[in-house]
Amino acid sequence: MVEFRLASLKETKPHEYAIRFLFGGLCTALAGLIAKHFGPGIGGLFLAFPAIFPAAASLIESHEKERKARIGFDGTTRGRMAASLDSAGAALGCIGLCAFALTVYKWLPGRNAYLIISVATIEWLLLVVGSWELRKLLYRRLQ
Amino acid sequence: MTDLVIRFLVGGFVVSLFAALGDILRPKSFAGLFGAAPSIALATLGLTIHRDGAHYAAIEARSMILGAIAFFLYATTTSWVLRHYRPRTLLTTLALAPIWFGASFALWFVFVRGQ
User: What are the pLDDT digits (tens) for A90-104?
Assistant: First the structure.
């Protein structure tokens, strides 16, 4: 069951939000610069650049460790496993990322750009949720 | 220069938004899906279409497919290494980043170069 935990936002420190903003902004600007200098063929690769993946996985590890430390346990292994699960989730998300890019590539020329981007985004969301549910189902059957 | 500043601000905002979504969602494997959200693409495609046209943006999207396959290899390897060994997460993700660069450029070289 998917849950929303708004309280988790408080665990992220202001400097961690700033790092995400900085990395995200830099990678986006860099993608534009690369496309300008080397053309859209190379520049397009960077639209799927894992911009904040290292920082996000590392944050998950440290938050899990902090949570365990607060109740007097060493959360090193748990933190690493949480980061591993997050990475597995990101790998599943890449299936949706591929579908997003394929839709934009095939349908964008000659059509309403905002409609195609919206369709591609909804498709991404449906696909990642669907693949996550399928993975969960398969995992249960294998156990 | 203005274009770069706009890209920086829009990119920073969109990437942070998806990261915050990943923070509030549980379980972890589901939240991880947002680590591979099309955040950079969403931040830049509008600007690219406006400045260089839809055909240019479609060429970028074709390469993005290859970048996403490379990201899949990178994230899968990272998950496997973290599960089977005992390294620090930040070190692992940074040390394995060449997988993304190597795979994406190799795929581009094989499938796109010369077209």
Answer: 998 999 999 999 999
Residues B64 and B21 in one domain: no
Distance from CA of B51 to the nearest CA of A (A): 11
| Co-location of B62 and B44 in the same domain | no
Residue B71 lies in domain: 58-115
Which DSSP string do the residues of B59-110 spell out, in sequence order? Answer: HHHHHHHHHHHHHHHHHHHHHHHHHHS---HHHHHHHTHHHHHHHHHHHHHH
Q: Check CB contact of B27 with chain A, cutoff 8 Å.
A: yes
From chain A residues 76-115, the ones with a CB under 8 A of any chain B CB are 77, 79-98, 100-102, 104-105, 108-111, 113-114
Q: How many domains does chain B have?
A: 2
Residues B115 and B82 in one domain: yes
- The average confidence (pLDDT) of chain A is 88
Contacts for B62 with CB less than 8 Å, ≥ 6 apart: A41, A44, A101, A105, B112
Here the ipTM equals 0.92
The answer to whether residues B76 and B115 belong to one domain is yes
Q: How far, in whole angstroms, is CA B22 from its chain's centroid?
A: 15
Same domain, B95 and B62: yes
